[in-house]
Amino acid sequence: MALGFVRPARPEDASEIARIQLATWRTAYRRMFPPHVLAGLDEDYLARGWTEAITAAPSARHRVLTAVEQGESVSTVVGFVAAGPADEQALAPEEKPLPDDVVAITDLLIEPRWGRRGHGSRLLAAAVDHWRDDGFRSAVAWVYEADDAMRKFLGSTGWEPDGAGRALDVDDLLVPQLRLHVAVGGE
Question: Are 167 and 177 in contact (CB under 8 A)?
Answer without folding.
Answer: yes
